[in-house]
Specification:
This protein has helices at 21-31, 40-51, 65-68, 84-99, 107-110, 118-124, 155-162, 190-203, 218-232, 250-262, 323-330, 339-349, 369-373, 383-393; strands spanning 3-4, 9-10, 61-62, 78-79, 129-130, 144-149, 170-171, 174-184, 206-212, 238-243, 246-248, 271-276, 310-319, 355-356, 360-361, 377-379. The protein is an alpha/beta fold. The strands form 4 sheets. Strands 5, 6, 7, 8, 9, 10, 12, 13 and 14 form a 9-stranded mixed beta sheet that branches. Strands 11-16-15 form a 3-stranded mixed beta sheet, with helices on one face. A two-stranded antiparallel ribbon has the order 1-2. Helix 9 crosses helix 11 (323-330). It starts with a strand and ends in a 12-residue tail after the last helix.
Length: 405
Amino acid sequence: MPESDESHPFCPDRNGYVIDSGAGNELTEVIKDPSVAPKAQELLRHLAHERDWTFVIDNAYTDTEFVKRPCAFRAMVTMNGPEGRDGLVQAWTNHTRRLRECINPDLDLVLPSNVDNRLYLQRVLAAKFDNYDICHDKFRGIFIIALVNTPPEAGETRKAIRSTWCKQRIILGMFIRCVFVMGVSRHDSQKMRDRLRQEFVQYGDIVQGNFVDSYKNLTLKLILGLKWVTKYCSHATYVYKGDADVFVNFRNIVSLLVSLRNRNESLDKFYIGLLQSASIRFSPSIPEHRLYSRYHVPDTMYYGRFYPPYCSGGSYVISADVVPQLIQEALTTVIINIEDAFVGILAKKIGVTPVDHQGFRNYGGKHDVCSLRNAMTVHGVGKSELIKLWRVYTDKNVVCKFNFS
């Protein structure tokens, strides 16, 4: 950053500076003269004035911001302050540690390196049920393929979803398909396997992997679903991922996506839902370090104070073009058991920024017909309540004034 003396501006040595090759060549010629003063700062000041060099002010060359706001270090080029080898090492160590506390941390500082999940995922994602017919009609195109998390024993819940928000196959002219993603029940039995096979044969919408279906394995469910999309439904435009206890208004979701596309938005690298970020009050974006919590993530797996921004795992939409990239990154990223935060980590790795939309509601809120018609999703809805809400939502005798767009 240029300073000035009584006559000429100059860039001080303490902050560092960059000169282009042309100026460097001119400087090299000048210093061949032994009579020239050896101090670089003084020499450059006079030479720059004499040759009419252009100064560019850049606050990234600073000696104050680094100390005051360590998270801003990523945008800086130089810092003045530490003296000697020990001072430099100490400053680097302290600020690297503090960088791990940033709201949107550098992933190479908070994630372990040299991770290879390929053999593990190959084993646990081996398909028991692997339906390949759902997206077979490529000529009509699938606008949204919905991946719904359900445990194997939740047959009644899947039945309720099939008879409500997954019932409609064409919405506003766009094709929608639903897939139920699951692992193996902790209480697996021949009776349960037979029942699930019968359901698979009847509906053809079940994808099952070779891992225990549990909260801690929700991330494996996600990867299984994305792997299935890559293999059998890569021609889809968008992927909806949601939990089983969610009321989904696909009409509003489709309307939103179409309107964005008409404005040349959301065409690719798109990720939308209810944003979770450390910058949002009460947002669950802090890793849980209590050993006996279901949300526990050890420091050896994630060593940051905050997760990168992500969308709540109850329901979100991503553009299908990023799915192969997410799968590729999952092969070399430590698999934490917080599925939605894991997606945020993968998204940050591939340069996708989550978009907040309050239509993707979490728990709570009104369940009257107009509130439902103005929502994208409502989380925390049981199977019996879902059927009731669907009747309310589809009541043709009620006309609502506004809808999301």
